[in-house]
Amino acid sequence: METISIVVQAGDPLTRAGLHTHLQGSPGVAVLPPDRWADAGVRVVAADRLRTETVAALRRAAADSAAPVVLIVDEISEDNLLTAVECRVVAVLPRAAATAENLTRSVRTAAAGGGMLPPQLVGELIKHVERLQREALSPAGPGAGGLSSREIDVLRLMADGLDTNEIAGRLCYSERTVKNVIYGVTHRLKLRNRSHAVAYALRTGVI
User: Structure pTM?
Assistant: First the structure.
């Protein structure tokens, strides 16, 4: 059996130590020190939820390493899941189910090029893929109003009265990303401001 080198990353020492203990005794698994994360074949990342800073760290690591990620998390939404997939997350394990056996199975699946998701998240991911396919085939382009799914998400939250910081937190984007999305919409569609962008989205029926 080929040894899988992994690194464990967690926001607190207690969680990191617990995961390290679970995995260290698994046959065919070698746990590397945290500072050797770039050498790992699989990365195990634990978080209570995908906060902005967690996503930023995942994006930075994904830019420097092609290693798949096993994510252990308390809760995750559809939007968070899509963001996680963009950051090389291939397996999501609820914290309550993070036993030594489940952890090892997730790591081996990730190392073999596979993926593992809770059943409810699989359904959400399939629905999103189907929605993207419909948008791609639509004569109007990305969406009925010429808007991408990311732009629609941002505009929907703007319509709900959220500010830039709140939108960034809800979608796990940086504030700069949200501002770029808003600028892209208003500039491309020649809209005057944020209110005009929301009104356009409402008028075209995309939110």
Answer: 0.60
The domain 4-118 having CATH identifier 3.60.150.10: the answer here is no
16 close to 43: Cβ distance less than 8 angstroms: no
CATH architecture of the domain with residue range 136-203? Orthogonal Bundle (1.10)
Q: Are 66 and 91 in contact (CB under 8 A)?
A: no
pLDDT for 5-45, tens place per residue? 999 998 888 888 888 888 887 888 999 988 887 889 999 99
Strands 4-10, 42-47: pairing is parallel
List the chain domain ranges: 4-118, 136-203
